[in-house]
Amino acid sequence: MPRILKFAALYPKHLDLNGDHGNLLVLQKRLQWRDVEAEIVPVVKVQDLAEFDFILLGHGTNDAWAEVLKLDPELIARVVDFSRAGKPVMAISSGYEHLIQQLEPAKAQHSEHVSEFREVDGVVGYLNTDVVLPEVRMIGQALLTLLHGPLLAKNPELADKLFYMVRCWLRIQN
């Protein structure tokens, strides 16, 4: 019997400001088309992330982040450990901002607020931020983006890239 992949939707009531968790539905459906089953699990309290094959760290308000980090102060460190173990992660907007502080020594800078549609290396999405970071980038197995919403629905090639990252991770485990 094939293994069912487990996707972690981290704190979906707090970190899904622009429908970010729709990315998991897109990835799940693209996997189903290839006869790979995936289960989306909402993570709403501190739990071991090692059981998951993919993590989505969505976007949230400052208040939402304050509440999440109060509930789970080690969340970002645990996501970094997950990524450094070679497992795929997708972090969107404020999720990216929090994660990058642990992945690299440089902190995000702030500038004039930008709110517009963007195309970055063939990836289309909506930028709505005052953060100065590359709009889309990969660090190891982590896809980091400032572009909001269900980005994978707008960019099937990017969804397929994540699909192959998940499949590679699965092959390593078997």
Can you tell me about this structure?
This protein is of the alpha/beta class and 174 residues long. The chain has one domain: Rossmann fold (3-Layer(aba) Sandwich). 36% of the residues lie in helices and 30% in strands. The protein contains six helices and nine strands; from the N terminus they run βαββααβαβββββαα. A six-stranded mixed sheet has the order 2-1-3-4-8-7, sandwiched between helices. It has a three-stranded antiparallel sheet with strand order 5-6-9, with no helix packed on it.
Secondary-structure topology with pairs:
Blueprint: E1 5-10, H1 22-32, E2 38-43, E3 54-57, H2 62-71, H3 75-84, E4 89-92, H4 94-103, E5 109-120, E6 123-132, E7 136-139, E8 142-145, E9 147-148, H5 151-154, H6 156-173
Parallel strand pairs: 1-2, 1-3, 3-4, 4-8
Antiparallel strand pairs: 5-6, 6-9, 7-8
